[in-house]
C-alpha cells in the first residue's frame, strides 16, 4: 500500500492512497484526515486504508491523477526525525574528508543524531541555499516511519514497529559541520530541512526486497541530469533498521510517526557512484590530491528514486532544484 | 495568561486556561482542542483564550479545581525540542567533571542540541531509571515555546516569536554521555524523556521579570525534600532566548510549538546551589578530591518551581520520583 499527503492549504495536508503505478490517488480523509492521524490509530485504520487501495486498484473507486508537485512530505512535520549513519563506507570517507578519524566503536555502536522535524520538505520543494560558502550537499537515504514504539525493543522484535518505508534527501551544509562538531553537541545549523519522496509505502510493497530490516534495492541519484550513484541499499547497511531501533529505544520510547533514516547509502564498489557530493570529493582527493566537484549552487538539481525489480518507481521521485534564498 | 493540558485519555490532552492562583481551570476546547492547535492558530485564538482567562478570573466562568496529577506536559509531544546550554558556569563545571575542555567559542557561539520531542513527561510523571549505573541526573531549566518562526531571525526581532514560557527537567544519564560524545554526533541515549511543569504562561505573566529574552527570577530545585539550588535564571544566561533564536534560525525555519530550553540554570555564586547533581559533584571533587553525592536512584525525588516576587508559583511544580523501570 502506498500513502501520500496531498497539499490542501493546511499544515499537515490530507491523507491519500496512491495506486501501485503512481498515476492516481484516492482521498482517505474519511478514514483518517492526515498521515499522522493514521499512524496514531494505525491498527484500526490500516485495514480500511488497504481496502480503499484495493478498490482504487480495481477501479471501484475513481482515482484522481497524481501531480507530484501537489504532494507534501508524507509527514510535513513529524514528532521526531532521527538519522542514523549505517553505511560504514560513507562514515570512513566523510570523516577522511574533514580530517577526522572514524569512531573507535564504528562497527559495534550505531551512529545516530536527532534531526529537526518541524519542517520537512516535499519532493519538489526547492533547496534553499542562503550562502554557497556553507557547502550545500545532498544525501540520498532510505528511512522508516514507526508506530508507537516502547523503550527497550530488541532487534529481533523491532520489525513490527516499522509501519512505512520512505526515501529522503538529508540536505547538509558540509562546511558548517567542523565548527559544530568541535563543540561536541552534534549537528544543528549544518542540517537544514530534509526532503522526502512523495509516497510512503508499507513494507509488503517491497516484497522480497524488504528483508531483516534492510531494503535490498539500489537507490538512484541523478545530479544535474546525470546518474551520480546507484549503490545497493541492502548488504552494506552495517546496522539494519532493526539494529537501529534497539539502539534508539535503550533509554526512551517513541510516538507514532517517528521517522528513522539509514544515513547516506554507500557502497565500497566505486562503480556504484555516490549518494552525496562529499564522498565523490573525497575520492577525487585520494586519487588526484584535490577536491574537484564543487558543492551545490543555485540552479543545480538533484533527483533521487528507487525502482523495484519490475521497474516501478516505488516512492516517486525526489526532484529538487537549488535556489538562492536570501 | 496560563495554559495547561488536561489528561483526557488522548495523546495530546485537552487545552485548559488556568487561573492566576493555580487553583482552578476552565476548558478551552471550544477555542482550540489542544495546545498545539492553539499555537497553530495563535493570532486568532490568543484573544479568545485571554477573554476566557478574564472570565475565569472574574468568576463569570466556573472553574474546576486543578489536580496537578491530571495535567500532562503543556505539549505532551512537540514537533521540536531544542535545548541550549546558555549558562557558562554550568558548561565549565560539567565539562570539568568529565575531563573535557570548554569549547573555544564558549562565549561567542551558543551551544544547542536537538532533543527527542515525541514523548514529553508531565510534572508528576515518574523518572524511569532502568539502570542506576547510567548516572541519572536532573537539570532544572527555563524554556520558551515558539510560534511559527522563519529562517533568518535576528536577536533584536526574536521576542515576537516567543509565545509561551515553561520550566522543565531535562533528565540526563550522565554516564552515557562520554561514549556518545566521543562519536561526535551529540547526545542521544543520554537524554531520556524531558519533564515539564504543568502551566505554560504568556510572557506578560512574568511582568518585569521577563526582560530582553531572559527570566529574572530564581529557579528553585528541591532534592529529596531539601533545597538544592535557587540560582537566578536571568543575569548569567550568557545567550538570551533572543540570541538562541538568532542561532537556531540561521539555516532553517520552525513550526509553531517548537520548544527551546535555556540549559541548566547555574550561578557562579556557590551559595545559590545547583540545578543538577553533576555541578554539585564537581564542586565536591574540586574541594575534597572526590565526588560525594551519588546520582539518582529509585525513591529519590526532585521538585522544581519558580515563584514570582509576590510568591505565586508561576508554572506549578515539577514533582517527580525516580522509579526502577525494568
From TrEMBL, chains A, B:
Chain ranges passing through the membrane: none
Alphabetized InterPro entries for the sequence: FAA_hydro_N, Fumarylacetoacetase-like_C, Fumarylacetoacetase_C_sf
Domain named Fumarylacetoacetase N-terminal: residues: 1-77
Molecular function via GO: catalytic activity
Any matching Pfam family: FAA_hydrolase
Top-level taxonomic group: Bacteria
Domain Fumarylacetoacetase-like C-terminal: 82-322
Name of the protein this chain belongs to: 2-keto-4-pentenoate hydratase
Organism expressing this protein natively: Lujinxingia litoralis
Amino acid at each position: 500500500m502506498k500513502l501520500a499527503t496531498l497539499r490542501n492549504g493546511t499544515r499537515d495536508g490530507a491523507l491519500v492512497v496512491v495506486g501501485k503505478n503512481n498515476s492516481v490517488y484516492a482521498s482517505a480523509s474519511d478514514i483518517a484526515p492526515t498521515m499522522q492521524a493514521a499512524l496514531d490509530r494505525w491498527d484500526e485504520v490500516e485495514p480500511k486504508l488497504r481496502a480503499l487501495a484495493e478498490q482504487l486498484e480495481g477501479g471501484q473507486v475513481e482515482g484522481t491523477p497524481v501531480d507530484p508537485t501537489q504532494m507534501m512530505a508524507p509527514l510535513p512535520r513529524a514528532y521526531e526525525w532521527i538519522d542514523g549513519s549505517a553505511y560504514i563506507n560513507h562514515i570512513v570517507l566523510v570523516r577522511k574528508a574533514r580530517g577526522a578519524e572514524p569512531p573507535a566503536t564504528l562497527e559495534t555502536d550505531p551512529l545516530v543524531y536527532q534531526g529537526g522535524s518541524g519542517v520537512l520538505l516535499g519532493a519538489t520543494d526547492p533547496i534553499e541555499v542562503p550562502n554557497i560558502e556553507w557547502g550545500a550537499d545532498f544525501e540520498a537515504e532510505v528511512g522508516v516511519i514507526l508506530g508507537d514504539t516502547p523503550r527497550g525493543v530488541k532487534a529481533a522484535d523491532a520489525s513490527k514497529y516499522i509501519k512505512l518505508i520512505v526515501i529522503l534527501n538529508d540536505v547538509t551544509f558540509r562546511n558548517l559541520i567542523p565548527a559544530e562538531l568541535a563543540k561536541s553537541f552534534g549537528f544543528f545549523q549544518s542540517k537544514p530541512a530534509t526532503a522526502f519522496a512523495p509516497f510512503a509505502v508499507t513494507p509488503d510493497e517491497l516484497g522480497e526486497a524488504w528483508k531483516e530490516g534492510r531494503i535490498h534495492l539500489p537507490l538512484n541519484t541523478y545530479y544535474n541530469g546525470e546518474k551520480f550513484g546507484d549503490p545497493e541499499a541492502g548488504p552494506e547497511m552495517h546496522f539494519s533498521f532493526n539494529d537501529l531501533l534497539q539502539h534508539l529505544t535503550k533509554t526512551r520510547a517513541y510516538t507514532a510517526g517517528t521517522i528513522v533514516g539509514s544515513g547516506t547509502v554507500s557502497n565500497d564498489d566505486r562503480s556504484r557512484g555516490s549518494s552525496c557530493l562529499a564522498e565523490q570529493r573525497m575520492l577525487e582527493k585520494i586519487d588526484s590530491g584535490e577536491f574537484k566537484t564543487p558543492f551545490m549552487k543555485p540552479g543545480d538539481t538533484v533527483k533521487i528514486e528507487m525502482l523495484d525489480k519490475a521497474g516501478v518507481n516505488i516512492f516517486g521521485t525526489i526532484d529538487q532544484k537549488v535556489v538562492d534564498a536570501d
